[in-house]
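Milestone M4 deliverable, item 7.
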Amino acid sequence: MGPEPRMLTPSPNWYCSRSSDAGPGGLFGFAARNSVYLLQIGQGQSPFHGNRPGPSPARPAPAVLGELVGHTERVSGFSFSHHVGQNNFCASSSDDGTVKIWDVDTRTVVTEHTLHQNTISALHWSPKVKDLIVSGDEKGIVICYWNNRNDSQHFFPEPRTIFCITCSPHHEDLVAIGYKDGMVVVIDISRKGDILHRLRGHDDEIHSIAWCPLLGEECLTIRPEENSDEHEIPNGKVVQQTPVTKGCYLATGSKDQTIRIWSCSRGRGVMTLKLPFLKRRGGGVDPTVKERIWLTLFWPTGQPTQLVSSCFGGELLLWDLTHSGKRKCTLFSSSSEGQNHSRIVFNLCSVQTEDKELLLSISMDRDVKCWDMTTLECCWTLPSLGGFVYSLAFSPVDMGCLAIGVGDGMIRVWNTLSIRNNHDVKTFWQGIKSKVTSLSWHPTKEGCLAFGTDDGKVGMYDTYSNKPPQISSTYHKKTVYSLAWGPPVPPISLGGDGDRPAVTLYSCAGEGIILQHNPWKLSGEAYDINKVIRDTNSIKYKLPAHTEISWKADGKIMALGNEDGSIEIFQAPNLKLICTIQQHHKLVNAIRWHHEHGTNPELSYLIASGSNNAVIYVHNLKSVIESTPESPVTITEPYRTLSGHTAKITSLAWSPHHDGRLVSACYDSTVQVWDVLREEPLCNYRGHRGRLLCVQWSPLDADSIFSGADDFCVHKWLISMQDHTRPPQGKKSIELEKKRLSQPKPKIKKKKKLTGKVTPKQEIIELVNGEDCPKDNSLPIENGVSDQEGEEEVQEPEISNGMSSNVSKELPSYSSISSGFEKPKVSINPKVILLKKELPKEKPEALAKKKKARSILPVSTALDHRSKEELHQDCLVLATVKHSKELNEDLAINLNERIHLGLFTDRTALYRMIEVEGKSHLENGHPDLFHQLMLWKGDLKGVLQAAAERGELTDQLVAMAPVAGYQMWLWTVEAFAKQLCFQDQYVKAASHLLSIHKVYEAVELLKSNHFYREAIAIAKARLRPEDPILKDLYSSWGAILERDGHYAMAAKCYLGATSAYDAAKVLAKKGDVASLRTAAELALIAEEKELSSSFSFRCAQELLSVRNWVGAQEVLQQQECLLGQRLVFCLHELLSKHLEERQPPEWKSSSFPSYHSWAIRTESSFMEKVTTVWKGTFGLETTEQCQTAFQQLHGIEYPPATGHTLSKQLLFHISHDLTLAVLSQQTASWHETVRALLAAVTRSYDSGNFTLMQEICTLFLPEGCDHLREKLGEEPPLKSLEAFFSYGQLYDLWWNLPRTPLIQIQHVADPVPCSSTASGDEQNGLSDTSSSEALTQKPDPEALTQLNNVLPQVAIPSTALEQDQSNTEKKQPALSTCEVLISQMHADLQSTQKAITEVQETLAEMIRQHQRNQLCKATVNSSEEGDPSMKPQLCSENADSQSKEQVNEPLSLAELTKRLSEANKRLAGFPESIKIFPFPDVLECCLVMLHIGSQCSGYLSLEMQQQALELLQKYGKSKVYKSYQIFCT
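Output delivered:
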């Protein structure tokens, strides 16, 4: 791909008549979401050929110049200015109601207007008037805006929805407008918008209008007989032939699948073109699908006889308008397979290059294509993205293939190494049908890509075939967070070698479980690994919800990130838990293991993690993994801490090119590169406009990183081109947040509050009339309040706000959960109260009258109120029936017509009358009266069945159901419960189920609808205490409460489920002091002592961070097993107090400290004070107690310090080491004393805090190391401790020397020795020149500059310049103790280690250079096949690097390997005791000694000077030491 930045842009907006345009100079812009992206076509860009196989002439490639940002909603129109002098201007319209004029060069808004009151649907910059922008909206308003004079005019030609607007290129006052209903009008804006022509012919939406590029109508020869129908029906009114209307053709494309050519001089159509139904390769098109057509047009410049149009499935057609009869059309790219768009095309525009015209098209398939108008072939394709970029993954086999998971339901595979096509992207969409949220390539199988989706689907694609993906038969219930390939675990690993795959696919999803899929049998069942974890580790408590999975590269260790912030480390294949990292306290989003191909193998044990907190932690698990402890270890201290981000971390990636270099993506809209080993931020990228979701380091270019965000973009950016080193803070962070918020957001319908608002009177009347309330959900009026008891909260939003039923179904879950955290309130039913309170005010007279009851027999009553003649006839018919023995046919018909007479005849006639009356009630909407009639009839069973079928059961009917029998009553209650569920009255339904003793069904009903409180109350009251349903209810409710952040209530639920372990863990999730303290006490009560001690320790650390030692000790004293930590905190308090008194500015904090009374300074020594407090306050008097405390602390290991370690963390770790030293001294364990003191001194030395190192030596070694030598003799750790003690004395002596003109020492605020810098500079090179040669050379100015970095920069007290000779004499014996620093063995060891490091770095650089050369070679070969002229350009970078190499004259690989093996042999020859224990830099000490000896005679004996000089001559081969030798001599 090349070293320059690249990006994949968001997709162009759909269904806009002009959302893209091309401007002069090869500029092309298209609207995407709420911004406009600008591309440069064909100027100075590398050529590529798109996806078309075979050789092709070079085509100009697009380069993204940037975007125009300013609109707050979707951009609906975009148009360039084509006038000389303002080629850099363009205009855009948006759904936010604004039209903006932009300066392309500066990408800023020149001016804007908000004259439209409705949604803008069309825009065009007049090609004839340089400052005229015409826009139209959905209500038919046309606004002409003159930019230069800030003037505007409004026109309203037709009250129709405008779809497109095009200004005439020939007449400055003519504007053509296309409407949604197919009408086309041409108006004259100079005559107040008079309509010149109404062009009728289309019967559907006008998608596009194009004016003929040439003036005059002679270019087309149209015979009258060709369009006889147009001659018969003129379109529009007859106008006079004026110069304005004379000689101009107009083309329109419509959704009715026709193109019409109109004559502006005659105001009528002259030609109609019908789109042909093309048989597409790969499938046909259904001609009946009209909505799948967007007919856009383009009339080529200077080609009036040709017209380009889109077609049904994305094809482009070139029409020849000169052919008579059936018009001839030519298909674009007819000779090439798959070059056409695959879906409908929305816009066409052209760019004029030096030698030809190029056509640009945008489509629903999310591609931008460029076409050669001469050959009608596709030049290139620019892919784009239609959703959030959720995942990025580089193939470990085909290194250049980047897979991109996008929220538009498609996977892109980007060949980033393609030379011919910078955007060589292949798209996969089959079988996905959801957002692609995670991706993972198979580690060894080429082209095998696993994907996970938002709907829980897991599948695998073969990217080298066109086959649909394999889909796992086991779906997750929620979004798939991450995928990982790893070795099989049981039960898949239990199969034979031929029956099991080498690696299986693991998927982690939102429900908190991880499934293991067999890639050989995806159709088979996937297995939940929680079962294996439980069985192997005998876990009884609830496992945390998993959110992330990551396998170590060797496949032996698996790391799981959890929702509670913990990270668990398991050993394959049985997933034995060996370690838990309790560092994050929020959901873990990303875990990454360091790669295994670095120069230092130990780095492969580093694991980086990021969570919803903004801090990244790196842990070194080497000791844990290699030791494999029997019981799981808990880690609470990180190896490195990376702070700087201001929002949650979403993705991490280690650099494959460096050791210990990490990149992180964050919701703060930035990507950060870190040097992990030095805890240093290196580079910050701020190019995205949204929250970062994923990041990957290029596997082939160490300077390139790919990142994806919710701005629909993938960026390839270069580290070397970034200006910032760390994430933004303060105002910059706020600006980035504003930039992110300027993106369009999905509009969420706000729910009105359920209480506290009074429904207006007008709404009440509408509700009573039934206009706002759905008929299904309305309740019978006569039932009143009884039907709504217990369901007020559900029914209220449905009635007062007119919400749909599916919204109201969600409400009970919120009300039931929140009810546990709010004071109980009396629920009221606004419907009932408002009807009683408000309606009397509206119609007092009407309500004052007593309402007459409705008749239950209205039909027969009405028949009895007919005319007198009819009533008399009724009497005659009734008499005949009564006195006749048999009913003849006429009498029976007569009686059937008079059903009301059934009241006076037999029962059969009465039943017939009741049946007619009942049907009448049902038709009039009175089922309750029908039920009463059926009850009178005695058919209660039929009444109940009919009411149940229609969902019209009531409390009254249910109450009468026992009359129909016991079984009927049971059936009725169940039916009524189902009906109540449809009405969202779950609590009432459960109560009715309880009335028929269906307790389990009632509880399950409430649980499934999230009424946990009510369900538990019923279960506790009606079921046995040991019933498992109770525990399940508590656990389910607790999980929901925990997810929503209600930790205290969740803890109660877990306690109810007799799971105190989970209760304590959920309480501690908040991470504050009060929560941790409560969690510790709860765990202690439940006899979970290990968990309780860990929470107590975390709580104490939180208190320590605010300098509250009193509170920390109160928390720790509850735990007997934390006696050792109490001693550490005690020593930490005393040491902090001491340092604050000695150096207040450095060690004082903004927080007010809370010291114990015993921390007040006394005259006794520090050691005496410590032991006195331990004995008096903590009762540490016996040796056994000291040994017990020592054992508690001895197993805790803290990571080594660096220059970026926080001072608070450093002081606590040193206090831990010093506590071990004092305890071992109390038990006379002198070996452990020396090791602990050495650890404390080394930690302060590595952090660069020389002052603290001096203080430690002063407090704990006031008389030096002589007393320890008497106890131990010449032990290696003691020798190292003596060396560091002497090292401090050496520098103390040097700093107090009188100032001389030979050396000017800089004054700085804090004396810090730069030993780490010295070590780095010593590795600059291995020179074969001898020291004697160096002594004759002139000083190297560059090396003298480096010297200033080697020796510590210190502050010289003013008193040091005034020391008298007596003080000087007292200092003379000091250097005699520094003889231990002149150690030839350590100098030899350090020189060997530096040589190994240098060779390893050289080898690593050679490998990187080889990769670059291979990439350049492949680039050259590809370029020679396409364009030989590219060869010099592509290899320019390689030539520069080779010229640099010639200057350095690098050694061969064989020579380097030989040197490395020799150095390793020398290193192996040193005793292990020498290599284990650290030692100050010997050559650095020699330099300081020689300098002191040169300044003050008598300080250094001649023998020591000679030894120091010999070591420098033997091992000091770098420029720094040579120049210093010359300088001193």
